[in-house]
Amino acid sequence: MADDMPDFNFTPWTEPTVAEAADAATPLGNAGPRRAIVYLHGIFSDHGNAFGTMHARLVAAPELAGVSHYICDYDYFDSLWTNGERLAKALSETFHADDEVVLVTHSMGGLVARCAILATRLECVRLLFLLGTPNGGAIRVSQVSLLAQLLHGTGPIAAAVFPRKAGIMQLAHAADLFHQYRALWGNAAHVDYVSIPGRYYHKDRSAWSRTDGITGVTLTLTSLLGEGRWLHLSRAHDGIVEEASNNLTALDRMTEKWDSYACPRDAGTHTYAHIRIPECDEVSHHRVQHNPAIIDLVRTIIAARLGLISGKPLSLGCLARDPFTLRTPVEIQLTR
């Protein structure tokens, strides 16, 4: 995006296969609000690996015609707050207050997006998806050194340096981090949050089950964290993140969405929902954003919230009262 942000890239997703969709987006400065989806990957990833499948399906969705798509690649070793401030700056410089922006995030990307929303009141941001995001923490402090030792020799990360990387360490303290910035929670009041978990290791799944498509550093992470033998993860979990960590209503610490799920004034004030569908039970941490049914769920929620289905934006409370709008068996949790 800017020369002073060499490890941060915010730009339109304009690969040749989606050139037509990119051209359909309304350029900044033209009449009328724009609609856009911004993708934020997780740790040890980038926009293509994390969201290539989802991006292709959303670009092809007729109800999302004219919606532009942006990528945000960031240095996951930097602090969550630093990356959040960079994202907030990029969003502020790219969009107007009356634009309608949806942030679709995976894992650590959700924490970066939450930091951005708190750092600056971003009127343009209407909806945030937290796919497998460890809102309550993922890697526990006692395991960081062990994780570094296992990674030594499997990648470029030196065991002596890895534990001191801010982004990694903050994965263990995510809930505390956001509680620390509670004076800024009001900046998130207008943004709807939707968390969607991976639940591959549910109560009926053998601890020895393995998911496919896991190699390299991802295999190392899964070997350490994936079957709960080292960290004794509580079920259900996706191999790295417990559902209880993804679900804000299950956290011990208050969050910026506390008023929504703990003490809502009425059904119309809900700005947080934890949503799961049967397919959540079949996806691990590294596959939750690639599952076709979950992608279709994300697509339908975006279209409903932006008023692209009925012509009128539907609130999270409306979706909970009439879940048939989402066109799939669904469980929507709005309160603790």
TrEMBL record:
Pfam families: PGAP1. This is Alpha/beta hydrolase. It comes from Azospirillum lipoferum. Keywords: Hydrolase. Coiled coil: none annotated. The keyword Acetylation does not apply. Residues 92-141 form the GPI inositol-deacylase PGAP1-like alpha/beta domain. GO terms for molecular function: hydrolase activity, acting on ester bonds. It comes from the Bacteria. Signal peptide: none annotated. InterPro entries: AB_hydrolase_fold, PGAP1-ab_dom-like.
